[in-house]
């Protein structure tokens, strides 16, 4: 059940009840928890925060992320052109990249090297200015979900906000060689902040597409993380919860077909990768290894007892972190 929207994550020094809430919990301050332990122990060694925006259009796939993992900050961006079969990416890693007082909400300002995120009047501008130039403008349409999920051990909770089919405009200048642009309801937002387990493993899927009867379909699925609470289907903007997801894939993950389905029988699909973005960080106090294949999806969705075929564009991920 998707619960009414809450405005504050912390109320009277307590986390709001675990659950799935309609749209964005705007105040996600973790200051009460950050300073537990020695000075800002939890903020530096346990709290993780990131923004990922994906754009899944018929012309382009783009990914943009800034991550504050406490002791280390990272950022990456990539794009793929279906027309030209061109893939470009870049990344940066900065020890202690954000100040110890950095306690962001979704609309806070984020800057790390060539990467920046700024929000004004509900419109967010993401910018990467490096070996290519990538500009993504999105406007939150307040059709997302907020999840407050339990963590493990003494770690209090993990919060995430997901939204799909967000209006977006993209401009890319690939070093003066090619320029690309797209616009439409093609963006996906992932804003996560909390205290995930020391060892965190997940499989994840995010896509936007159309059914054979021209309904807009979008999905966020995860397995082995956040108690599988963030499995949501958007159909013409209306949200419904999905059951546990099962991911089946074989090495190499960047070129083999991924099979993904939900236990309730509502969703059954296959991702055929066009490429992948991967990373393997092995720092002193943090390890993060993931691969994020992207491409086209085909499958079926059960709507009011009737099965429909659909096609979509999206990404999946296999992730293992010790942080």
> What is the beta-strand fraction?
over 45%
Mean pLDDT: 93
CATH H level, superfamily name: AttH-like domain
Kindly provide the name of the CATH class: Mainly Beta
Structural class: mainly beta
- Supply Rg: 19 Å
Write the layout of secondary structure elements.
Layout: E1 2-3, E2 10-11, E3 14-15, E4 19-22, H1 31-34, H2 41-45, E5 48-56, E6 60-68, E7 72-81, E8 86-95, E9 110-112, E10 115-120, E11 123-129, E12 133-139, E13 145-149, E14 158-174, E15 178-194, E16 199-211, E17 216-223, E18 232-235, E19 238-241, E20 245-248, E21 258-262, E22 267-282, E23 287-303, E24 306-322
Parallel strand pairs: 1-4
Antiparallel strand pairs: 2-3, 4-13, 5-6, 5-15, 6-7, 7-8, 9-10, 10-11, 11-12, 12-14, 13-14, 14-15, 16-17, 16-24, 17-18, 18-19, 20-21, 21-22, 22-23, 23-24
């Amino acid at each position: 059940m998707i619960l009414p929207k809450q405005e504050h994550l912390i109320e009277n020094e307590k986390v709001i009840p675990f659950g799935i809430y309609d749209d964005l919990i705007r105040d996600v301050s973790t200051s009460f928890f950050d300073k537990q332990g020695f000075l800002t122990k939890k903020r530096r060694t346990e709290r993780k925060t990131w923004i990922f925006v994906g754009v899944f259009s018929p012309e382009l796939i783009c990914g943009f992320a800034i991550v504050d993992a406490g002791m280390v900050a990272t950022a990456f961006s990539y794009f793929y052109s279906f027309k030209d079969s061109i893939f470009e990416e870049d990344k940066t890693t900065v020890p202690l990249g954000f100040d110890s007082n950095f306690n962001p909400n979704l609309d806070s300002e984020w800057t790390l090297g060539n990467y920046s995120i700024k929000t004004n009047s509900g419109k967010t501008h993401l910018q990467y200015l490096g070996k290519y130039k990538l500009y993504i403008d999105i406007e939150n349409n307040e059709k997302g979900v907020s999840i407050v999920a339990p963590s493990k051990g003494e770690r209090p909770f993990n919060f995430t906000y997901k939204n799909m089919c967000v209006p977006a405009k993209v401009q890319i200048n690939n070093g003066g060689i090619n320029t690309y642009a797209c616009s439409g309801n093609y963006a996906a937002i992932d804003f996560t902040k909390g205290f995930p387990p020391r060892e965190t493993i997940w499989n994840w899927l995010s896509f936007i597409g159309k059914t054979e009867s021209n309904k807009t379909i979008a999905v966020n699925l995860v397995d082995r993380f956040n108690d599988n609470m963030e499995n949501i289907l958007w159909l013409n903007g209306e949200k419904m919860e999905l059951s546990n997801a099962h991911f089946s894939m074989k090495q190499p993950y960047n070129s083999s077909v991924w099979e993904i389905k939900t236990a309730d029988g509502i969703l059954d699909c296959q991702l055929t990768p066009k490429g992948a973005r991967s990373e393997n960080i092995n720092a002193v106090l943090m390890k993060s290894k993931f691969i994020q294949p992207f491409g086209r999806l085909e499958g079926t969705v059960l709507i009011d007892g009737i099965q429909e075929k659909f096609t979509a564009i999206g990404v999946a991920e296999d992730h293992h972190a010790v942080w």
